[in-house]
Structures are given as C-alpha cells and as structure tokens.
Amino acid sequence: MTDGGRRIYLDHAATTPPDPAVVEVMLPYLREMWHNPSSIYVEAQRARATIDEARATIAGLIGAQPDEVLFTSGGSESDSLALRGVLAASRRRGKHLIISSVEHHAILDTAEQMERDGVAEVTIVGVDREGRVDPAAVEAAVRDDTVLVSIMHANNEVGAINDIAEIARRVRAKNAHAMVHTDAVQSAAHLGVHVDRLGVDLMTFTAHKMYGPRGAGALYVRSGTPLQGQVIGGGQERGIRAGTEDTAAIAGFAQAMSLATERREADLGHERALQERLLSELPRAIPMLAITGPLDPAQRLPGNVSCTVGFVEGESILLALDLAGIAASSGSACTTGSVEPSHVLVATGMPDDLARGSLRFTLGRGNTDADVDRLLEVLPPIVQRLRALSPIPIDEPPASWVPWLAS
Ligand SMILES: Cc1ncc(COP(=O)(O)O)c(C=O)c1O
Asked: Would you say residue 396 lies in a domain?
C-alpha cells in the first residue's frame, strides 16, 4: 500500500474515472427523467430533447451535423458497426477491407470473422518499429474494389498517433469511392478531432475514455455514407441502431466531451509533463528497459508511457505494483491460461521474449508528481526482485534485443 493507503491509478487508457460534473448531469435522468424517449408524453419528450441536445453538442465539437452522429454503446460497437455496416451496404462495389496490424481487437477480430464468413477480403497493413502506420503503405494496399479503410487515430497500447488526414487523402486519390474510418477512442479527448480536417467518413468514439460513463459511444457517419444497421427493430438512431436510448449515459457523454474540449490545453500540459519525466527517468532507473512507441512527443498520445522490461513477465510486475498500491496494465492478453505477448509489440517487430515484459502507464487529470515519484521509487526494486527469482541466467541481453534496448 502507498503512503496513507492511497491507491495510484495509472491506467487511464483502460477507463477514466467519471468527472463529478458528468455524474451531476446524469443523476436527474436516473432519478426522475427515466422515461422512454420514444414515448409520447411530456416526460418522454424531455428525454428526447436531452438526446437531441447531446447529439448537437457532440456534432458541434467534431465539426459534424447532428444527424451524422449515431449513438451506440461504446467503442467496440461503433467499430463493429462501421466495418459490418459499410461492407454490408456496399456489396455491389466489392468486399475489400484494409486495416492495420495494431488495431484494437474490436476491429481486428471483427475483420477476421468477416473474412471467415466470406463477407470481407482483408488486407492488413503493417507498422514501423514505433507502431505507426505509413500512409504510403495504406495507399499501396488500395484497390479498385476497396470498400473501406479503417486505421486507428492513436494506438491504445503504445500511444502512436497516425496521420489520418494524409492516409485519407491518399486513399481518396487512388479510389474516390473507398470509405475511410478511424477509431478515435484514445485520441478524441487528448487531441481533439475534426471530421473534415481528418477527412474521414466514419469515426468511433467512447465516453468512458474521456471521464464519461461506460456504455455510451458514438459513430460519426458522414452524410451519404452507405451503412446498413446491424441491430435493428425499434427504429431508433435513424433505424440503424435499435435499442431504447440510455438518456443518462448520453447526457453524461456530451458533458464529458464538452469538458474534455474546455480542459484540453490544461490536461495536455499536465499529462505531458508527467509523461516526459517517466519517459526519461524509467530507462535510467531500470537496466534493460526499453520505451516502446514513438519517442517524438508530437507523435505520441500525451499521458502514454509504455515500455518493456527484459527478463521479467509484465504480468508479474503488475501484480507486485498492485500490492504496492499502483494500478497499471500491460499490453499482453491472457488467453487460455498462457500470457501472449502484445499483438502491437509483435507487429512492431519486437522479439516475443522481450515483448513479454510490456507495461503501460497511462496518466490522467488526477495524477501528480508525487505519483510519478512513487512509481520511480517502487518499480526498480520490484524488477530487481523478480529478476533475482528468474530461472534464466540474466547477464547479457540476447543479440535480438540490442536494437530495442539501445533506443
Ligand atoms: C482503440 C480502442 N478502440 C476500441 C476500444 C473499445 O471501446 P469500448 O470499451 O468503449 O467498447 C478501446 C478500449 O480499450 C480502444 O482502446
């Protein structure tokens, strides 16, 4: 436990604590205005008006028209709707889909399932050693029958920011009919996103990564984009996404996004300062630790500090950090009892055995210099202790690690 038992939360890319102002906005819709927005009476009409206002607020913040914003349950649903919905509505044009190797599993697994089902032919574009997608590689993958290109704006594990505007420009130059989708789940709050400046047709959002509630998200759909609904029935969200709307969550989402916009500069400065300390001090404090993701701050999400530690499993470090009062995460996925290295790090070309030591610290509004001090105090002895327990002799790093540890 930390001094005085205080827990330190360094996992803001997983989810963010709801801002008190967001909770305030939501409560009346849980307590009094809980009515079904599709009903006819006055209470229901009030709920409907709240949803319309939230839609207009969010549209205004991203440079869209209100009827271009579809509410969903979050990032995974929006990603799935973008891929399935566009391909289903464009069958006559083809079924070629382009994604990158570092997308969130909501995109990767959906694309894989669509290919298995015969409704998509998928090209996966690789990334550089910092996890960034080369716009020229995307352009090279575009074909006459390409229906959709889906490349994330910023990566959730290593924080790499992609040049979506350039990707969209190149895609369109090669095939004017291809649609461009970006998953802006991690970037929306930090960078601010404008649909015309990014030049996209579809964009994914989720509220819970911007100090909003879980269970609310949106898919921006540029007017005229072919999109077939995947959950249908009640006719909500222009008949594309059925289901009784969660007025409280939608109102909280709009409030969270407004606050993120108001506070962007302050949040950015704060997170960058803490991030820079960790990026420079961690490799000095721990031998054989490599920072993963872009080293240039302009190409990296503020607040993201990802790294990998040689000769230790990231999961073991996380358990020890948890006992020390620090909540963080790794890029690895626990599948069927074995720890698989992060697909993102593997895609950057990092050897599997080094990628197994991956850690991700993501900073947020509530973090302080004292939190960074505490992490720098507890992490080096944890790594030292775990290395001492290792059955493998730890002397020289394998040759395949050297280029990674040098950076
Ligand atoms: C890049 C990215 N896309 C999609 C998602 C899924 O969002 P949600 O949890 O709202 O379904 C996440 C969540 O971690 C993410 O980081």
From this structure: no
Q: State the pLDDT at residue 334.
A: 54
User: Which residue's C-alpha comes closest to atom 7 of ligand 1?
Assistant: 75
Position 4 scores a pLDDT of: 57
Q: For the chain (length 407 residues), average pLDDT per consecutive 10? A: 75 97 98 96 97 98 98 98 98 97 98 98 98 98 98 98 98 98 97 96 98 98 98 95 97 98 96 97 96 95 96 95 97 62 95 95 97 98 94 83 84
Q: Of the residues 334, 370, 394, 402, which is catalytic? A: 334
3-class DSSP assignment, residue 206: strand
Report the separation in Å between the CA atom of 104 and the middle of ligand 1, taken as the mean of its atom positions. Answer: 7
Atom of ligand 1 nearest to the CA of 103: 1
pLDDT one-digit tens code per residue, 46-74: 999 999 999 999 999 999 999 999 999 99
User: What ligand 1 atom has the least distance to the C-alpha of 155?
Assistant: 1
List the domain range (segments joined by +) for residue 95. Answer: 20-262
* Ligand 1 atom at minimal distance to the Cα of residue 77: 11
Ligand 1, pocket residues at CB < 6 Å: 74-76, 79, 104, 106, 152, 156, 183, 185-186, 206, 208, 217
Q: What is the CATH number of the domain that holds 246?
A: 3.40.640.10
- 204 Cα to the center of ligand 1, angstroms: 9
- Gap from CA of 67 to ligand 1 centroid (Å): 23
253 & 284 share domain = no
Query: For 87-94, which contacts have Cβ atoms below 8 Å and span 24 or more sequence positions?
Result: 87/114, 87/119, 87/120, 87/147, 87/148, 88/119, 88/228, 88/230, 89/226, 89/227, 89/228, 90/147, 90/148, 90/179, 90/226, 93/145, 93/147, 93/177, 94/143, 94/144, 94/145, 94/146, 94/147
Q: Is residue 110 part of a domain?
A: yes
